[in-house]
Write a structure and sequence with these properties.
The structure holds 2 protein chains of 2 kinds. By secondary structure, chain A is an all-beta fold. Chain A is built from no helices and 11 strands. In chain A, a hairpin with a 5-residue loop joins strand 4 and strand 5. Classes of the chains: A mainly beta, B mainly beta.
Chain lengths: 129, 106
């Protein structure tokens, strides 16, 4: 059974940092692209970041403009884990953060058959003083 | 960036009704569109990928059509467990983007 379990959320002051983790099981983690999606309270879904599988040697990474330069996605295939390092946090980063397994891949300016077939339960990040 | 406009933003229908949600893209996205269902307090769940392909295990009352800029999601016979918010998502161009959601109530 595929499982994704996020952790690391919590309350942080503006300007602070958090590191989210996503522990994967039930599939060959290294073979899949992974994604972070967030949802502000009472709002819709927002794509945050993408990281390709590392099976080809190097990983491709993309970020939403809203987090570029502040967030860093990474993965440890030996630990079947995905991470999101979030720095310089702002009130508008307050959201539930989901990790999701991604079919397909992204390259250049496009994605190909890029859909999210398994999601974690989410972890809440609250940025407030 | 490509903007996705879903309509309506909410609807109320009766059990057994046919429900239709539309999603419009600001640019041609071919068939690069997915549909998700999200129940309150839960993660989204993939229903339809590549505009019209039903994800494994998803009931056949759910369907999707469309291409280019105009897409339709249909529930052929609404069931009580279909109460949820539905989102479209394009992936043709980076960054991937979601529609604003359609809340479906019984």
């Amino acid at each position: 059974e595929v499982q994704l379990v996020e952790s690391g959320g919590g309350l942080v002051q503006p300007g602070g940092s958090l590191r989210l983790s996503c522990a994967a099981s039930g599939f060959t983690f290294s073979s899949y692209s992974m994604t972070w999606v967030r949802q502000a309270p009472g709002k819709g879904l927002e794509w945050v970041s993408y990281m390709s599988s590392s099976s080809s040697g190097s990983s491709t990474i993309y970020y939403a403009d809203s987090v570029k330069g502040r967030f860093t996605i990474s993965r440890d295939d030996a630990k079947n884990s995905l991470y999101l390092q979030m720095n310089s946090l702002r009130a508008e980063d307050t959201a539930v953060y989901y990790c999701a397994r991604a079919e397909g891949y992204c390259s250049g300016s496009r994605c190909y058959k890029y859909y999210f077939d398994y999601w974690g339960q989410g972890t809440l990040v609250t940025v407030s003083s | 960036d490509i903007q996705m406009t879903q309509s309506p933003s909410s609807l109320s229908a009766s059990v057994g009704d046919r429900v239709t949600i539309t999603c419009q893209a600001t640019q041609d996205i071919s068939n690069s569109l997915n549909w998700y269902q999200q129940k309150p307090g839960k993660a989204p769940n993939l229903l339809i990928y590549d505009a019209s392909n039903l994800e494994t295990g998803v009931p056949s009352r759910f369907s999707g059509t469309g291409s280019a800029t105009d897409f339709t999601f249909t529930i052929s016979s609404l069931q009580p467990e279909d109460t949820a918010t539905y989102y479209c998502q394009q992936y043709h161009h980076l960054p991937p983007s979601f529609g604003g959601g359609t809340k479906v109530e019984i």
